[in-house]
Amino acid sequence: MSSTSANRAYLLQTSGENPGTWGLDPGLNGNFNKIDTNLGGVTTVALSSSNVTLSATQYANGTIRLTGTLTANVQVIFPAIQAWYCIDNQTTGSFVAFLNITGSPGQLICTEQGGATDIFLDGTNVKFRNLPPVGSYLDVCDIAAPLWIQFCTVPPYLTCDGSAFSAVTYPYLNAKLGTTTLPDLRGRARFYLDGGTGRITTAGSGIDGTTRFSAGGAQTVTLVTANLPPYTPAGTVPINFATGQRSIDGGSGTVVVATRSDSASSGNVNWYTGSLPNFGGSTTIPTQSLTGTAQGGVSTAINNMPPAQISGVTLIRAA
Questions:
Q1: What is the largest CA-CA distance in the chain?
Q2: Strand, coil or helix: what is 204?
Q3: Could you state, in order of their start, the residue ranges of all structural domains in the chain?
Q4: Tens of pLDDT along 181-211?
Q5: I need a surface site. Which of 84, 102, 174, 187 has the fewest CB within 10 A?
Q6: What distance in Å separates the CA atoms of residue 222 and residue 211, rounded to the nearest whole number?
Q7: Residue 151 in 3-state DSSP?
């Protein structure tokens, strides 16, 4: 007596059964028709606000196309079989469609609206197929992780915000990162490892380009004296005597000499021009410190940002 396969109900012939009738249903052609539907069949399931349990005719198809405007979160329920499918999610609305297995307390997932996603059932859980490797990045133009990611029982991506994650839930990500702390990419650009090129060094940028997840940099910088190029003054420097200002005459010794009158009442200052007298021996010429007002502003920080545009958030593949 014939029996059927556990998952897709293919007809299993017993030895010597149905001699000469293989081309008739139920028979070999019946199995081929089922295989054709499993691999290439497409069925459409309309969704709105209620859960839908797939019929045998629907889940026999390899591609399940979801349509309709979601007005609530709903479930699409598969039988407890082992199989793989393509989910073509053409729904709209700010809700999600969970993919579940009947009577199963296992893992549920959601798929992205507007995209086709490969999934597989193991009899208890619904899981993704063919996602990028664990540890790869996903840049999205959203302000947070999309709902289809957040609402999965085990989100396949986590936001790179420097928070901690469970090594039990995400053992492969923990092995990749060597830590249970996510990279913090908020407000930061990503650079690749220096690889011995010397393009990103601690001395040059304050960031160790040879160590993963090294971070640094700032959006502004304040210049100090050490940032300015060296400068050597040159040329003639005027010398200030009393209230007048004159220059030494090319080494001739001609200067302006001021002497004060002995008359205490008049307080006059008499000016004479001529050669310095020979005092004999060494003579100390008094000096005076110069004072003035600082110039050039108040050391305001300057913009250190290249042309940029803020796009969204970055996620990392976690499961």
A1: 149
A2: helix
A3: 3-125, 131-212+314-319
A4: 999 999 999 999 999 999 999 999 999 999 9
A5: 187
A6: 27
A7: coil
